[in-house]
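Hi R.,

Here's the chain you asked about this morning:
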Amino acid sequence: MKSCKVEGCTLNSRITRGYCPKHYYRWKTTGDPLKVHRFIEPIDIANGFARFAEVNQRTACWRWRGKMGGNGRPYLGQHLAYRVAYELYVGPIPEGMEIDHLCGNGQCVNPGHLEPVTSAENKRRMSLMRPPYCNRGHYRPVGERCAECDAAKNRRNGAKRHQLVRAAAAALGLRWRDYADQYGTAKSTAERVLQEAS
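And here is the predicted structure, written out as tokens:
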């Protein structure tokens, strides 16, 4: 049975080019089967901010120009860039705390704009920072849901429900009174829904 070329290695599964999977990966990524591959060296973190942070003179935000995740968050390697910035320039983030952007810009990595807060406080602040208009342009009080969008959603859902009631009643050949009795709906609701179908 073949074994790994590395002295003292006891792994014998799937030998490739004379190495076990662990040592083969190290050899392939670094050129040395004994050297551990590091994704981010400490010096690279400091240099990363110089290369990828663009200072906005008006807002003083350090806008991240590097890798962005699918959720729109900035990343440096596998780490959230604003968390790295806080730990690099301010200090460790306390256990159980999240980073809040005081400027409201989620792409900002300026440590002066970052503050560690609890999850509840972060969510509260985000709700207060939302603009007074929803995505469709309706006015809504700060921190509340858009009443017009909610009403439109309820109308759409009600129409779908009515369509299902009409289809079910037609398939069963029931009148509104029979349908209401059989399915426990209010007779007035069943009558209105089924009359709309006629």
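One quick note: Strands lie at 53-55, 62-64, 75-76, 79-80, 98-101, 114-117.

Cheers,
M.
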